[in-house]
Amino acid sequence: MITNEQREKLRGWFAGRLPDDLFEELTEITVDREEILVVGRIPAPRLAEDAPATEREAALESRAQEFRERTREDRMAVAREAEHRFRRKVSWGVECGGRRTLFTHVAAPVMTRLRQPERQVLDTLIAGGVARSRSDALAWCVRLVQRHTDDWLAELRDSLEHVRRVRAQGPDIEPDTEPDTAPDSAPGADDRQ
Q1: C-alpha to C-alpha distance for 133 and 124, rounded to whole angstroms
Q2: Average pLDDT for residues 147-155, to the nearest whole number?
Q3: What would the pLDDT profile of 85-105 be if each residue is shown by its tens digit?
Q4: Are 187 and 4 within 8 A, CB to CB?
Q5: 159 to 33, 82, 150, 169: CA distances (angstroms)
Q6: What are the pLDDT digits (tens) for 45-69?
Q7: What would you report as the CA-atom Rg of the chain, rounded to the nearest whole angstrom?
Q8: Pick from 29, 191, 35, 7: which is nearest to 107 by CA?
Q9: 37: Cβ–Cβ under 8 A, 6 or more apart, which residues?
Q10: What is the C-alpha separation between 131 and 13, in angstroms, rounded?
């Protein structure tokens, strides 16, 4: 987890570093231990008001692909710089006409130990055709929880931010030393902080 201040600095860095004409608007930057996801709004294609849904969907898909190819070099240059600076992979996405398209993004493995009741839930999702594997089923469960608990998760993140600020004021901090403002350490680093 990174602090709100670190998140603001990260967003500011990208806002200052991205070419002005890359996006209409930088809409979202999210970060975790492995990845920084940068999403911006691009102009929607011009279509007739009565264009069929299939035509509209194809035009949005095509616009996102055109953006991806046209801006590849600029995005790669920014990503190289950011990956060196923040020690995380950078992924990209666009919002266009109400549709969100993500380009290359990290699919990080997560190791866990599940007891039989939890494994049975995953196996039921597989048997029901909801998922192809236990990994897919677990990802499906995480997305379901995320969708239904956004407010609770936001409150939990705020609480963690408060705990981090209180810890930073503790007796182990030198008065002349500021807490580290770089995002959390790179994958594989010691997580016992």
Answers
A1: 11
A2: 82
A3: 999 999 999 999 999 999 877
A4: no
A5: 19, 28, 14, 16
A6: 999 989 999 999 999 999 999 999 9
A7: 20
A8: 35
A9: 28, 29, 30, 31, 90, 91, 92, 93, 102, 105
A10: 38
CA distance 150 to 154: 6
Full-prediction pTM beyond 0.70?
A: no
Report the half-sphere exposure of 172 (CA within 13 A, side-chain side).
Answer: 4
Token representation of residue 67: 């953006």
The answer to whether residues 31 and 37 touch, using CB atoms and an 8 Å cutoff, is yes
Q: Please tell me the chain's helix, strand, coil percentages from 3-state DSSP, rounded to the nearest 5.
A: 50, 15, 40
Q: Name the amino acid, one letter, at 9.
A: K
In the chain, the N- to C-terminal Cα span, in Å, equals: 11
Give me 150's structure tokens.
Answer: 């956004």
101 residue type, one letter? T
For residue 80, the one-letter residue type is: R
